Amino acid sequence: MELLKINNLNKKFDDKYILKDINLTISNGKIIGLLGKNGAGKTTLIKIINDLLTPTSGEILIKGNKVGVETKKIISYLPERTYLNKQMKVKEILNYFADFYENFDIQKAKKLLEDLDLDINQNLSKMSKGMQEKVGLVLVMSREADLYILDEPLGGVDPATRDYILDTILSNFNENASVIISTHLISDIERILDEVIFIDNGSIAIHSNTDELRTKENASIDEIFRRMFKC
Amino acid sequence: MLIKLLKYDLKYMIKNMSVFYILAIFFAILSRLLSLPEQSIMLKIIHKISSGCMIAMIANIIINGMIRSWVRFRDSLFKDESYLTHTLPVTKNELYDSKFIQTLIFFFVGFAVVLLSIFIAYYTPDTWNTLKDQLNLITTGFNMSTIFFIMMSIILIFLELFNAIQCGLLGIIIGYAKNNNKSAFSMLFGFVFYLISQLLVLGLVFVYGIFDSSVMELFKSATISIDVNAFKTLAIVSSTLYLSIIIIMKITCKRLLNKGVNIE
Questions:
Q1: A100/chain B closest Cα distance in angstroms
Q2: A190-199: b or e for each residue (b if 16 or more CB lie within 10 Å)?
Q3: Which residues of B touch A85 (CB under 8 A)?
Q4: A157-182 pLDDT per residue, tens
Q5: Residues of chain B contacting A68 with CB distance shorter than 8 Å
Q6: CB of A223 within 8 A of CB of A187?
Q7: Contact yes or no for A176/A28 (Cβ under 8 A)
Q8: CATH code, A165
Q9: CA distances for B8 relative to A99, B61, B108, B173, B219, angstroms
């Protein structure tokens, strides 16, 4: 069965279409790069999958279920912004996740936070933006989810930490799960991608296996992206 | 899941409101300690300041409690924190019910703290007897029991304030469904719903008055010398109407949330 299936999805704000007739199928065990220029519709698509936006028309099925309680149990989502309650301490947030997500592994989260030298007794408001983003990533990757959706996970961190984050992603999801990563930093993540989806003006321009696309175009994904979007 | 949501909503309110509860009781105790029959001018001044602070805290408990309920609802369901709230494996109904019950609980807690503070600061056998006499005077005049009068007054005040909170919540849901000026629209819609609910209650009481001449007298008569039963009927009818409006608004809020949200 497909993990994620999107049929004829449209989203418009006022009279402008942000997403136009999106059709997409994602199967298990893949790492997919969701790529596109600013305002192309990447975050809009991700937010609809996560029930943060209501589609104008179309259908989204995750493991055969429409977006709702059942799909939220199996999707682990990292938004592009800091979304955690800053009044809370890290350990309180860990307990919060453990309370609501049955598939959250609190011991794994504590271990990852320790590896990153993050103090679980520290208040989130006392942490830098980069540290808060690391906490967010640890929370998301400590769930045994079927689909991980990471919106700009590398945005606010230094190049050294980027490698650590990518390694964390690679070593913390099971083989049957899939990961969708939306980013502008293509060269950083290219090495881990199985598939790429290029979004342009709200439509899917390319959805292809990474190796096949590289061979066909005789260029790296980064070069193909720059060529396609004339950067 | 509702219990878990409620646990975190209550924790938030305790964190933000407990300081006002503690301060109200603290100033009440201070006022009590300083209310000695013979005291210096300086102690009298401190007593007045302390009483003023207690009254300010009581006002704060009511006003801040209402504002905190709206802010918590907005932040949790429509601001950055909503990225977590809406991705929790819970229904939209549970999200709404949790906020609704939290508001209800803090309303009662706030009310209890206000009564306790007033009791601590001002209770004496004399003031208690004066209050009882005043209540007896009113209730005898209105031909009703003291308990009924107190309960009716509390229920009416509670429903009136809760109606205002509910209007605010509905205003936030509709305001945040707009693409621009979400905060401004929230306040505008909340205020408009409050006005409509008040006019609706007044209008329906008037309609009730067509069938009950004693109630109609409240609209026609310029003097207070009208049938005392009219006040009793008015209180019961108004309470029923407020309760109906609150229930209708609660159902509307849930339906709108279930239609889906559009988070920026």
A1: 7
A2: beebebbbbb
A3: 12, 81, 84
A4: 777 777 777 887 787 777 788 999 99
A5: 91
A6: no
A7: yes
A8: 3.40.50.300
A9: 10, 20, 18, 21, 47
CB A184 within 8 A of CB A168: no
Q: Beta strand A57-62 with A4-13: parallel, antiparallel or unpaired?
A: antiparallel
Q: Domain for residue A179, yes or no?
A: yes
- A107 assigned to some structural domain: no
Q: Which domain holds residue A71?
A: 4-83+145-228
Domain residue spans in chain B?
1-123, 124-264
- Chain A, window 135-164: residues with a beta carbon less than 8 angstroms from a chain B beta carbon: none
A216-220, B19-23, B73-77, B85-89: range with lowest mean pLDDT: A216-220
Question: B263–A47: do the CB atoms touch at under 8 Å?
Answer: yes
Range of lowest pLDDT (A60-74, A162-176, A208-222): A162-176
User: For residue range B28-66, what is the model confidence (pLDDT) as tens digits?
Assistant: 998 888 887 777 888 888 888 988 999 999 999 988 888
Q: Give the model's pLDDT for residue B180.
A: 79
Classify the phi-psi angles of A32: left when phi > 0, otherwise alpha if psi is within -120 to 50, otherwise beta: beta
In a domain, residue A132? The reply is no
Out of B12, B87, B179, whose CB is closest to A72? B87
Q: Please, what's the largest Cα pairwise distance for chain B? A: 66
Q: CB within 8 A of A31, min separation 6: which ones?
A: A169, A170, A178, A179, A181, A192, A193, A194, A195
- Tens digits of residue pLDDT in A83-140: 888 888 999 999 999 999 999 999 999 998 998 888 889 998 898 888 888 888 899 9
> What's the pLDDT score for residue A54?
92
Q: What is the 3-state secondary structure (H, E, C) of B43-112?
A: HHHHHHHHHHHHHHHHHHHHHHHHHHHHHHHHHHHHCCCHHHHCCCCCCHHHHHHHHHHHHHHHHHHHHH
How many angstroms separate the Cα of A140 from the Cα of each of A42, A103, A123, A192, B155?
19, 11, 19, 18, 46
pLDDT at B109 over 60: yes
- Among B12, B87, B173, pick the best mutation site for testing chain A contact (most A Cβ within 10 A): B87
The reply to whether A14 falls in a domain is: yes
Handedness of CA A166, A6, B263, B16 (dihedral sign): negative
- Residue B197 near residue B167 (C-beta atoms within 8 A): yes
Tens-digit pLDDT profile for residues B216-241: 877 777 765 556 677 777 888 888 99
Total number of domains constituting chain A: 1
CA dist B195 and A75 (Å) reads 43
